[in-house]
Amino acid sequence: MKKIEIKELEIIFFKIIEKLKSEGCDELTFDDDFYRIIPTEKWDSYEEDIIHEASLFDDLDSVKLLKNDSTRILTYVDFDRVASILRAISQKNNPIL
């Protein structure tokens, strides 16, 4: 079993933001909307190939609602949305992966 402290995640996310800022990123633009995703509940299931299509643009719109609407409740689906955004940033800024 491996563990990570919430404080460690806070530092990591801070460093991610600082890296983007240090590279002059004030805004990120994405051209490609759709991506393939393995549903979270199937990540560790190797018996079948389950791949769905998701929308990065929908993910962006949904997480922006968290900033703009103080009554909106953050859910674990939002974690998945942020993960897809981070993946898109990685792919765009480091496409050789």
How is this fold's topology laid out?
Blueprint: H1 6-22, E1 34-37, E2 52-55, H2 56-68, H3 76-93
Antiparallel strand pairs: 1-2
Structural account:
The chain is globular, with a radius of gyration of 15 Å. Helix content is 49%, strand content 8%. The chain has a two-stranded antiparallel ribbon with strand order 1-2. The two termini are 27 Å apart. By secondary structure, the chain is mainly alpha-helical. It has a domain at 27-93. Helix 2 packs across helix 3. The model has no long low-confidence stretch (mean pLDDT 91). It has three helices and two strands, in the order H-E-E-H-H.
Keywords:
97 residues; 2 strands
Strand order of the largest sheet: 1-2
Proportion of residues in extended strands: 5-15%
Q: Give the overall shape.
A: globular
Helical stretch tally: 3
What's the story with the biggest beta sheet?
Answer: 2 strands, antiparallel
Q: Which regions have little confidence, pLDDT < 50, spanning 5+ residues?
A: none
If you average the pLDDT, what whole number results?
A: 91
Distance linking N and C termini: 27 Å
Please state the structural category: mainly alpha
Task: Report a brief summary of the structure.
By secondary structure, this protein is mostly helical.
